[in-house]
Amino acid sequence: MPKPRDFIPRTLSARIILQTVSSITLLLIPTILAMVIGTRLVIREEVGREVDHALDGIAYRIDNTLLGIEQTSAIIQQDVPRYLDQPQELYELCRKVLEADSSINGCAIALNPDHYLPHGKPFMAYLHRTGEAVIASETFTSLPFTEQEWYLKPLLEGSASWVGPLKNKETETDPLISYVVPIVKDSSAVAVLGIDISLDVFTRIAQNYRTSSHSYITLLDRVGSYIVHPDSTRLMHMDSLAELKDAEDPSVMEALQAMVQGQSGRREFMLDGTRYLLAFMPFRPSAYPGRVIGSLGWSIAVIYPEEELFEEFDPGFRLAVLMTIVGILLLFAGAYTIPHVSLKPLRDLVKLTNIISKSNYKLPGFETSRTDEVGRLQTQYNKMLNAVAGHVEQLQNLSEKEASLQTVLARTYARTKKVQKHQEAFFDNMTHQMADVTAEIQDNVDKLCEFGAGMGEEEIKGLIGSIEEDGVRVTEILNDMLKSNS
């Protein structure tokens, strides 16, 4: 099994490259992380400001729309008491209301049956838009108007108010919201003026303030019913709280409950596997002189998927990451190539040194014009190589001389041994000869000493002559030995 150190390069240049790239990479990673985190925080803050502006803009536009309806109703309200006995004129007043503001969907003036019963039955003058046409009617759905909320609420409360959203069986076509005003005559509520606005008006206002392509804006009333929803068919549902009661993330219900309670803030929640960001604030109508409408209990919310928050940032971030990776790769390539090229002379020196270590000293030097450390090293190497080559040549010459001397000495030694053997043989021979001669001399001397008195003169002369001859012979032998030894 390979050990961690087996993956560490063994060459100095590779280790330097690895350390350099690793150090720069370690410096870049925190920088990139800080950039990502900081950018995301900035984006969140910027989007938060955009969302706040969108909420304020929506509230301002809706408030202007409501205020326009309220002012229109105040004008018409003054004329209604003059035409209570002229039902057909009430239709003309309703027509003036529709002509005053194109955002008004319908207008109704319902007489209180306790005070007026034209033709012996309850009467309501009602005009509403259907496409480009304006249609007159005496009824508002199949349910008698005397049983509907928009009529009963102002009579019971005795003040103007906004009612709605009116949905399902309460409307004939689109979901509506109505501004209802009691008509008072002689301190009695004799009629009710109702001006209807389609919820599509608020939806169009909200669409103009969308913060992104996948975000949407909703407006809830005090019970959680939709006043604004991007899908108009969902406006026909009863309320958003009932719709989301089984949501997978409990924070969805918490956010909706906070909206219904008139709170403001931001929330994050999961819905259908997507993380959403929610910003909401209560809608508060502006205070104007003579305006009687207080808090409506509405809440405006901007909802957008979190992934969309960074969809413009992510491509740039991915490009930055890609450029960083490419930069690291280029850095690695440059860090590898530059030292590789710069250190090539050192690698050549290593190769030549390995060759020199194998006793091959006949190598060419380096021709270099460099003045840096590598160039100085090459110059010193050339000097060393020349010096080593000179010493090696001297050693080779000495070795050759020594070998020649050894050959001469060997031959001399062989000749000396041969001469020595001849000398030994010669001396042995001479020694034997001298021994024989000296033995004869000794015998003759012994005879003279022992028998000289009884010998004759001639015999004595003969022995003395023999001794003299043997002495000469010994002298000759000694001379020969001395000559052969010199």
Summarize the structure.
It is built from eleven helices and eleven strands. With 486 residues, it is of the alpha+beta class. The chain has two domains: 31-311, PAS domain (Beta-Lactamase, 2-Layer Sandwich), CATH 3.30.450.20; 343-486.
Task: Label this structure with key terms.
486 residues; Beta-Lactamase; 2 domains; 6-stranded antiparallel β-sheet; 5-stranded antiparallel β-sheet; 11 helices; 11 strands
Topology (elements, then pairings):
Elements: H1 12-79, H2 87-100, E1 104-111, E2 124-130, E3 133-137, H3 149-157, E4 161-166, E5 176-185, E6 188-198, H4 199-207, E7 216-220, E8 226-228, H5 240-243, H6 250-260, E9 265-271, E10 274-282, E11 299-305, H7 306-309, H8 313-342, H9 344-356, H10 373-451, H11 457-485
Antiparallel strand pairs: 1-2, 1-6, 2-3, 4-5, 5-6, 7-8, 7-11, 9-10, 10-11
Helix pairs in contact: 1-2, 1-8, 10-11
What kind of assembly state do the chains in view correspond to? single chain
Output the radius of gyration.
66 Å
Q: How many alpha or pi helices?
A: 11
Shape assignment: rod-shaped
Classify the fold: give the CATH topology of the largest domain: Beta-Lactamase
Mean pLDDT: 75
Q: Which architecture of the largest domain does the CATH hierarchy give at level 2?
A: 2-Layer Sandwich
Fraction of helical residues: 55-70%
The chain-level structural class is: alpha+beta
Total of domains:
2
Residue share in β-strands: 15-25%
SSE string, helices as H and strands as E: HHEEEHEEEHEEHHEEEHHHHH
Enumerate the spans where pLDDT stays under 50 for 5 or more consecutive residues.
Answer: 232-239
By CATH, the superfamily of the largest domain comes out as: PAS domain
Report the biggest beta sheet as strand number plus sense, adding barrel if it closes. 6 strands, antiparallel
- Give, in spatial order, the strands making up the sheet with the most strands: 3-2-1-6-5-4
Q: What top-tier CATH class of the largest domain fits best?
A: Alpha Beta
For the termini, the CA-CA separation is 84 Å
- The overall strand count is 11
